[in-house]
Amino acid sequence: MHRGRAARHHVLVLRQYELVERVRRYDPDADEALINRAYVFSMQAHGNQKRASGDPYFSHPIEVAGILTDLHLDDETIATAILHDTIEDTLATPEQIEKLFGPSVARMVDGVTKLSKIEAQSENERAAENLRKFLLAMSDDIRVLLVKLADRLHNMRTLHHIPSPEKRRRIAKETMDIYAPLAERVGMYEFMKEMQTLAFKELEPEAYDSITKRLAQLKEGGGDQIARIGSGIRLLLGRHGVEAEVSGREKHPYSIWRKMAERHISFEQLSDIMAFRVIVRDIDDCYRALGLVHQRWPMVPGRFKDYISTPKRNGYRSLHTSIIHNEKARVEIQIRSEAMHAQAEYGYAAHWAYKMGRDDGSPDSMGWVRDLVEILDHASSAEELLEHTRMAMYQDRIFAFTPKGELIQLPKGATPVDFAYALHTDLGDQTVGAKINGRVVPLRTQIANGDQVQILKSKAQQPQPGWLSFVVTGKARAALRRFVRHKERDETIALGRKFYDEIVGRLPAQLGKDALAQALKRLHLHDEAALMEAIAKQTIDDAAVMEALMPGAGAADVAARPLPQRDAISIKGLTPGVAYQLADCCHPVPGDRIVGLRRPGEPVEVHAIDCPTLAESGDDADWVDLAWGDGSDGGAARLTVILKNEPGALGIMAGIFGAHAANILDLSLVHRDRSFHTYRIDLEVHDVTHLARILAALRAASVVSSAERIRVEQPSRQAGG
Ligand code: MN
Prior knowledge:
The structure is a single chain. By secondary structure, the protein is α+β, with helices and mostly antiparallel strands. It has 29 helices and 19 strands. The chain has a five-stranded mixed beta sheet with strand order 1-2-5-4-3. Strands 11-15-13-14-12 form a five-stranded mixed beta sheet, with no helix packed on it. Strands 17-18-16-19 form a four-stranded antiparallel beta sheet, covered by helices on one side. Strand 6 and strand 7 (407-411) form a beta hairpin. The structure holds manganese (II) ion.
């Protein structure tokens, strides 16, 4: 069927009723109205647009839909194919598509449009493999990919109409590098072969001509050699009780050419240009057939492959062997069961159909489409679908673009910081913010497949230690660790210098010019920085420093520097010594997830992660990822407690606080009516666990109607309190 259409140069547009008829032949329940609507809509949208062939543009999407009817695809996919170029090339909008054809078709049309945009960016040859993976990963609905492949196949069939040789070459090359391998990967072997043949013809016209000519000669000379060899194989197997369907074919020109190129041999030396496919009932018969063939004809050493015991990565299973049929003819034989064959022809869909035991074995049954759609509909996520289709190998990767369209591959969960470091270490170090698809986002935002990421940078910026808690790439992690180590040392030295100045101030006399150098020698330290570090870390005490600077002065010092006090609360993610304050909008206590807001020249505000203040913070504020330090203790939580209007209720509540050793910092009556009194209470608690226990105890008390923690006060309540 493919060959027939490919040979026609000026295609008549498939008529509306013909298309519907084709679909109805394999799916009597198909939504005819949907297909009719799509047909008319697309025809009107494309209007007078013309293809390079002179055909109306509209012929293209209809032909693409026609190709997909050969695969027995469902009505939604057919409608998608008919509409696939309307968003990009006409005035039609996604909203219109959704309104007229429903969300599922709209989503798929959007998917195909996206894939087309990416295609336009793919100039870079090295990125071919990346791009294939990207297209696979993006097509979370495999039907989108099928439409895209059919689109490309039709464009290849009509490639010769394009006048510019450069453009034809580019499209052919892209097909060879990206789409044919992609078709192979999802098991669409017929698509793959036709794409390769058409691309080969464009890229290597002379080789293509000579190979097809030779094949034609061979056919004339050998009579119907293929038919004779084929029936010989069938007879042999039949005599031994192995029922088999045998079909023979010439290899397609591109695969012959590739073999010639790979093995550096001429056409004459390349004798196995015929291939036979032997389809038997089950696995047992596969191996029996193989044994019979090998007993009858000598096998060509090194050509036997058992893809049944070791299937290919895409799930392909078969036995491959080559035999010497007579002196001249080496032929390749593929032996497989019916189930394996259906899978090889129809890809994963057939595989599912067999696994689910619903298919009757005939590859043209609707079973696989139904199963496919069922899985598509019921797969709760793209991940689950990818799992089914064995595309799982890309599940853990995402692909994002730079503003210039460069494709960056990252592990799943990667953030703009990872993206920046993947591009360049300096860029990572200077990152201050990021835009994803044009919108400013927090740096901890996870990048999604297909996002365009722009890094905002500043030379004055330094990496934040807090980033370590969310970056996922080794490169970012290593760069941040290195930076933190240096920075900590710098800060330690600066702190040491402060103490040093203080120590010098306590000396009874001015220091001489060489005093410091002398002191370093006495203390066996190799430089000033080492001394400052030792002072800050208190590995050397003040008296010893004084003694070294001015012998005799150390013993006289009385104003020993007090050891720094450890805070009850510590926060990880801030460089030591940076000022911060707990925000009084959301009242975070240890155990809450927290984020810092930093504005130049102000202390870092520590907010709970769900505090709306964070979302409202403008571009001038940096988000800093924070965590409570080990053993952090103490914070002011704000509660609302509604008490029943009963005598002694307030006393009971206060008793509960007392019993849990929680200090009331503030208490106000916010609202009262005849039955209930509402109090707002600021309570000093150790941490969230402590608070949770108190809330539980309150709720258990009969006088308490409700007890809640207030994370963020509603404006109305604030006004009332
Ligand atoms: Mn198209």
